[in-house]
């Protein structure tokens, strides 16, 4: 997410901190069902309107305008007042506006304008332009000839539908962000402020540091552990990469390789259960399946992703004779025994999700409450919980949540336009017509579209767009729905390490003082499984453990794992020793055959 605008001077950061803490308290109270316990009748849309108003105000006060700082205060006050007024008046306003849309225009128009400006500040121009294109299509799409001609809708009705309806801004993406994602964002920020990222890095050093290429393996393990709850590949790079990238460089890895490994490991954290960032919660909601089912489906591909990265790092270390690291180099004195308070919340989370079958928000609350209970027991070498640290952690969570809320609210505009104009049907029909009966051609088209649409965009926005635009076409040609959604999520995520706009790789390059574009291409090499595995599990549902039977799943997992290892050796050019050109070519062919037999089956 965008961070380049300066923080506001004077009172702005302090007020933003108060608003951030307020937003988190309100959201956690809602997720905990406090309003129901107190018998207070509140529409969900009222809660969402209030959260959106707070999020916009926080954004206008933290990502300030360089030219008109006074405008920021005006926008923040307007957002707070508008969100609060809409929250109070929503029950009657929604009924009146459904009869006469003109009644809703005085609040709908300012809300959409403020949302677009807030989106520009927190996510940049790429996503903002996409939203503006969809808005333009919504108003003038009936003038487009051919397949993509939209249904004619009166402008005032469309505006009110997008701003006030549950199929628009106040829809499912915003609801998931404000009720589920908030819990895990707060949990992640608390963990980070208490030294969780540092602990996982030290733990990874204890586990992997003394092996050959130990620094790279520390990076991979630490990033996978912390990345699954950080919610952002870029923030994961910034948190763990500040330690691991210099460590890899000192061990002998070239700067571009060190940065590339960290970028790939950090990006993969959002594909790794049990939390998988925020997109997995949206996926469960879109597919109307339990969150645990999404986690089970994502498990094997995520493990294969990291197996390949480990193998690549190991073989490069063997080829280039890169040894382990001194454990003292990362101050590994805090062992698992002393750092157990960080492990307990994860155990509580897994038990709540998969044993007690709690809803994700409830499970996240259990994990967060557990962390708060055990935080005072942290050793002296790590941060202790105190009121100031708690305030800062919750304020940081609120600012992160504000950006997520704005992005998901804007994604509601896309969903609203798709539903109101019939564009989703036109896109699905066009893709399937171009691909004909070829599932593989459709998958290739979907992969390219996913990477292009994902460039420079936050993960949640990427997934919502692709789930609405691309996944339905895959399902229409027979791909399992959960496989289709995982497919677009993988390729949307890969935009973060794919030049020319590889934001995770570029962030890692800045930490490693390496060339950004060369780092991006190096990251593509290390992340190669993410460009191949989605095709494998789309054509072979056994890899996502989707009802194919134990034997079929076992065979698919074993052959794909062997294929991943063999291709990794071919890419590095080293196995037990250096491989000749023909040996590498043969290994590449063998690995492709082991992974690609579902392709042959699908083509036949």
DSSP E strands, number: 0
Radius of gyration: 24 Å
Which structural category do the helix and sheet elements fall into?
A: mainly alpha
| Tally of individual helices | 27
* Shape estimate: globular
Helix content: over 70%
Distance between termini?
Answer: 44 Å
Main beta-sheet annotation = none
Order of helices and strands: HHHHHHHHHHHHHHHHHHHHHHHHHHH
Mean pLDDT: 86
Give the amount of beta strand, in percent. under 5%
Unreliably modeled segments = 1-8
What does this structure look like?
This protein is mainly alpha-helical and 604 residues long. The protein has a domain of 56 residues.
Task: Describe the structure concisely.
This protein is 74% helix and 0% strand.
Describe the structure using short key phrases.
604 residues; 27 helices; mainly alpha; 74% helix; single chain; 0% strand
């Amino acid at each position: 997410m965008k961070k380049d605008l300066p923080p506001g001077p004077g009172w702005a950061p302090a007020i933003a901190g108060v608003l951030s803490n307020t937003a988190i308290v309100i959201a956690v109270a809602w997720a905990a069902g406090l309003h129901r316990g107190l018998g207070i009748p509140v529409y969900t849309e009222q809660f969402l309107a209030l959260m959106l108003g707070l999020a916009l105000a926080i954004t206008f006060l933290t990502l300030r305008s360089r030219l008109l700082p006074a405008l920021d205060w005006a926008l923040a006050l307007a957002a707070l007042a508008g969100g609060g007024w809409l929250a109070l008046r929503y029950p009657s306003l929604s009924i009146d506006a459904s009869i006469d849309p003109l009644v809703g225009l005085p609040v709908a128009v300012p809300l959409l304008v403020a949302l677009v400006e807030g989106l520009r500040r927190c996510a940049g121009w790429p996503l903002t332009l996409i939203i503006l294109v969809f808005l333009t299509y919504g108003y003038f799409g009936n003038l487009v000839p051919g397949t993509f001609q939209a249904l004619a809708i009166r402008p005032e009705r469309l505006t009110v539908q997008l701003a006030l309806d549950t199929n628009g801004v106040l829809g499912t993406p915003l609801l998931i962000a404000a009720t589920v994602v908030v819990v895990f964002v707060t949990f992640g920020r608390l963990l980070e402020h208490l030294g969780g990222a540092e602990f996982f890095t030290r733990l990874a050093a204890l586990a992997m540091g003394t092996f050959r290429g130990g620094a790279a393996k520390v990076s991979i393990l630490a990033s996978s552990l912390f990345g699954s709850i950080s919610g952002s590949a870029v923030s994961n790079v910034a948190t763990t990469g500040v330690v691991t990238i210099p460590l890899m460089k000192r061990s002998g890895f070239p700067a571009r390789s060190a940065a590339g490994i960290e970028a790939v490991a950090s990006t993969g954290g959002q594909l790794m259960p049990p939390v998988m960032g925020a997109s997995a919660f949206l996926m469960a909601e879109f597919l109307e399946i339990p969150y645990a089912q999404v986690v089970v489906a994502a498990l094997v591909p995520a493990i294969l992703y990291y197996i390949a990265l480990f193998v690549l790092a190991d073989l490069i270390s063997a080829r280039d004779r890169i040894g382990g690291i001194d454990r003292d180099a990362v101050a590994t004195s805090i062992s698992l025994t002393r750092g157990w308070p960080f492990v307990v919340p994860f155990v509580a989370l897994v038990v709540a999700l998969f044993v007690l079958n709690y809803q994700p928000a409830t499970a996240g609350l259990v994990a967060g409450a557990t962390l708060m209970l055990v935080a005072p027991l942290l050793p002296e070498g790590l941060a202790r919980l105190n009121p100031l640290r708690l305030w800062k952690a919750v304020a940081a969570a609120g600012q992160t949540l504000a950006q997520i809320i704005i992005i998901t609210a804007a994604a509601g505009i896309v969903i609203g336009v798709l539903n109101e104009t019939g564009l989703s049907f036109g896109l699905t029909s066009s893709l399937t017509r171009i691909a004909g009966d070829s599932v593989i051609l459709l998958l290739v088209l979907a992969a390219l579209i996913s990477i292009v649409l994902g460039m420079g965009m936050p993960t949640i926005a990427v997934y919502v767009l692709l789930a609405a635009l691309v996944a339905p076409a895959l399902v229409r040609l027979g791909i399992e729905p959960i496989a289709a959604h995982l497919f677009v999520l993988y390729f949307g995520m890969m935009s973060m390490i794919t030049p020319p706009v590889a934001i995770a790789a570029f962030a890692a390059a800045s930490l490693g003082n390496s060339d950004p574009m060369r780092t991006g291409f190096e990251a593509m090499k290390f992340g190669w499984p993410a460009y191949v595995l989605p095709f494998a599990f789309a054509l072979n549902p056994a890899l996502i453990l989707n009802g194919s039977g134990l034997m079929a799943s076992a065979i698919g997992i074993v052959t794909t794992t062997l294929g991943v290892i063999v291709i990794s050796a071919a890419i590095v050019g080293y196995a037990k020793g250096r491989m000749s050109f023909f040996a590498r070519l043969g290994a590449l062919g063998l690995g492709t055959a082991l992974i690609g037999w579902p392709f042959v089956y699908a083509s036949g």
